Amino acid sequence: MKQMHGVAIRPFTAADSAQVQTLLSDSKVALLAGNIPYPYPDHGAQAWIESHEERHRSGSAIIRAITLVKGGTCIGAISIDHISRGLNASGNLGYWVGMPYWNQGFCEAAGRLMLTLATEEYAMGRLVAAHQIDNPASGRVLEKLGFNELEPQRMTNLSGQYLFRCYEKQLFSIK
Questions:
Q1: How confident is the model at residue 137 (pLDDT cuts 50, 70, 90)?
Q2: Is residue 86 part of a domain?
Q3: Has residue 79 been placed in a domain?
Q4: What is the CA radius of gyration of the chain?
């Protein structure tokens, strides 16, 4: 388990499902994440966690729980999905934390841990990320992680169509 600044990232377990269910039942988390349905379906967390093993095995995603080091409470998730392999390995970074854990630096710390995982264990060279334009806190996290802003794009998510700020980060270059 990797840890930094009071948080750790680790694979989800079935024991996390009740906490995830509670955190994702908050309309504000669902709205700002954009890819989380609201109201969150009964047993949705359990089904989502059960899907991780196949996504990891197929190489399409790396999904980790963000937990507090002290006590081990699951406070959110961080993932790299839409993974492409090979010389130009890349993926899409995404993350969320429950509202009680907002604005405490947890996403930045988890992001740094995930960047290390992406480069050291998965040899990724590039990550992209996006956030809804009305979620500037997520943009600040990405900037602190060294992502560079690209042109905004209009995209559709579960909540409708929104303008997103898009970012990319080169993790390493092959010479």
A1: very high
A2: yes
A3: yes
A4: 15
